């Protein structure tokens, strides 16, 4: 191969390996930001570039690489396995076995590319890059990997072209190198090894096709210790039943986690009321207990009729002759981190219970409205349509998809976004499985949603802009509030609302609550006091979210709006886990908020608690970019003076950067001219060389300083000194040593920057 | 530079007009104790130069016209039986001169060419198992004709490596030719150049050249250059360590002729063409290009 062609092929090979490294890095952890993966890949490639810089150049590129290179490759390939335990123990993160292997192979590929002076290394590097790229593509469908694949394909085409051309070059020999070829008569020997390998490969492919690709892939997958086939458990496994914490689809509902399963379980599980007590504290009985409240006959407590599971019963016998216990590999034995996980945009309010009547201290659950219409099943699939009563003028146009993955059953609750339009619960295909608990709150009456089921929903999102023109539903019971609620609360509500009408009233109350009060989860009302709302509004001015919700609901009710308080879950965006791409909802996310009814029949969330937000409509990319630009523009306008100063300074620095750097260098040279005259001269020549380089007259690397300086007027003497300084070993100079500094100073003054500029215009002089 | 070197330069410049650069290189070659291969067309002054050099340096001059029937003994000398003394007497051949002009060296057989090997490399000749030392300032100027290839025996690489330089004199300029003609009017035998160096003076000069300092960075530069010739794709035969030594010595001579007590990379570069041209396997059409590439591929130390 011609050397320049070999170099070109080497560079393209390096590019291929770099692309493969990037693709592998992205595929290895496709949930982190792409930039981070690419930066990490760039780090590896940079290390390889440094190694390539120091890699020896072979005398015979087609020869055998040195033996130590083989050792180096083995060490690099195996390094990942050695480092993995350290990585797991120090950083708490790790790669599954197959990614460790791929990382080792990537190291080998980069090392081969760094030593691509040898043709063998170069070709192996290309093969490794191809494997890595295909692996990355098979591993993930991340768009960045596809983009890298595109670039890789283009670079690979160039690589093939160059290699082909390099092969052709052997036929086009320069005249002086041409020799006559002597053709050996006789039969060519068959390359038996190649024939056997080819036959073996074809046989393997045919066998795979005969057995069936999926089965073959399954069998092959069993070989990997992290695939589940070997029975090992790896917390960092990417897939496979029982392998890692990210379990995958399986047939048995008990053996798998996040799957869409049709199996439903019935078991007595903790109710929502336990949860409220846990997160919001236990209620106390108020002193003035003068009312008796009867249980609602419709509300029945459901008990499991089965006997408790065997594993909850104590053993009756105990023998000491036992086998060693085996670790429990049942996924159910690993505790879920959340009640359910939400996939989709957050913040999201998930209604659980709505409260309607308020007697100054207690909210009573709203009765089932009875107006709810059952869901309508779509002809195909398991999707149900939620009948919409309202025209939907307050909603944005685009449907909002969400997925709720139930990890811990919470009774009959079917988690949905506030305004669902379609939903699918596993493979439930009967509409009568569902019922409305209260308006907008879906339940599965008499059933529990089992762990592991996935609820897919599509919902509408309230557009705050359209909300401004919405008309509120008046509450005929507003007048009844007076005896139950302190008149000061009503007066405060009127004061806050002022002259505002319609939705503006709601906004006014909400804003005052959010701005003037502090959210404090631990704040409690004084023991035994009933008028907690008065205490919150006028005395403590801090409290839990239930107080905010109560205050908003009661005050709006006092202004004549129809309101209710809703208890539910709040999927907080700050809890989003990029690793799983889900937002876990834990019991601490239990939240209270107020809702206002519109004439259209929709209940609109009024989030009065500071720190909590309501999901807004998804903004198109163009609008977001525009908004970003506008914000940027606004910021620029606000900081116009500082920015202008910065710009002017930047431009000035750019304009006079050479003068500034040169002045600094000359000043440095004057202050620290060196220990002897040689260093003094070298420093001055260095300054002159930099000046020359700036103006296109730099010294070529193969030219001596003497030859370069000699071309210029008035620098002959300095040239001679430079020559002595550089090459005369320990010889006393034929001039007084003090003279050197003087000559250097003169040279620096005479050949200052303007003169170099002129010299560029008028040729060297 | 000593006066002796200046005088030698002047004498040679008078003998060969209009070629100061060639004279300088020939002088460097002589002071470096190297041998010179002149590759040029007939009639350009090769013999004149060799004779002038021999006369100016005060040595004996011998000339061998190489032909295919020339035998090694014709060069080294041979023993003849002396009837009177009943012993073999050694009759020294032309190698025992101080300056030997081997004209058209590629016309003689490899056997005869090889006879020169020992003389050039070790400055001795072995005849009939008896070793005869040659003059300490023994200097070979060999010529070959670049045009004709028929009936020639190209010098083997081993032989070429014994030469310090390969030079071409080339045609003189117009003015020089005018002067040449003017000087020839009235001349019958040609003007003999006078002797300018005394006994042992050339040897002293050569010893002085050997003492010219070579800094460590310059030595490293030379080594890097040598290695780059070995890895250059168009060079079929790289520089040998002997070649590297020769290059350093010629660079020393060049620095000496410049009046400098130390060698600079400029010296190394300026003699690179003739020094590398004789010993590297270079493509005939692009030798200068390759040498330039080699020189440019290595950064000079500063």
Main sheet overview of chain A: 7 strands, antiparallel
| End-to-end separation of chain B | 25 Å
* Strand proportion of chain B: 5-15%
The most extensive contact between chains is:
A-B, 24 and 27 residues
Number of strands of chain B: 9
Write a structural description.
The complex is a heterodimer of chains A (765) and B (302). Chain A is extended, with a radius of gyration of 39 Å. Chain A contains 23 helices and 16 strands. Chain A has 765 residues and is an alpha+beta fold. Chain A is 45% helix and 10% strand. The two termini of chain A are 44 Å apart. In chain A, strand 8 and strand 9 form a beta hairpin. The longest helix of chain A has 27 residues, at 143-169. In chain A, helix 1 (3-28) packs antiparallel against helix 6 (143-169), helix 3 (67-91) packs antiparallel against helix 4 and helix 13 runs antiparallel to helix 15 (545-558). In chain A, the strands form four sheets. A seven-stranded antiparallel β-sheet of chain A has the order 4-5-7-10-6-1-14, with no helix packed on it. Chain A has a five-stranded antiparallel β-sheet with strand order 3-2-13-15-16. A two-stranded antiparallel sheet of chain A has the order 8-9. Chain B is α/β, with parallel strands linked by helices and 302 residues long. Chain B has 13 helices and nine strands. Chain B has helices spanning 3-15, 20-31, 46-57, 72-76, 110-122, 157-160, 174-184, 201-210, 216-231, 241-257, 265-270, 272-279, 287-297, and strands spanning 36-39, 61-65, 77-82, 87-92, 99-103, 124-127, 130-133, 139-144, 165-167. In chain B, strands 2-5-8-1-9 form a five-stranded parallel β-sheet. In chain B, a hairpin with a 2-residue loop joins strand 6 (124-127) and strand 7. In chain B, helix 1 runs antiparallel to helix 3 (46-57), helix 8 (201-210) crosses helix 10 and helix 10 (241-257) runs antiparallel to helix 12 (272-279). Chain B starts with a helix and ends in a 5-residue tail after the last helix. The mean pLDDT of chain B is 88. The A-B interface holds A 2-3, 57, 59, 174, 176-177, 682, 685, 700-707, 723-724, 726-729, 731 and B 213, 215-218, 230-231, 233, 260-266, 269, 283-285, 295-302.
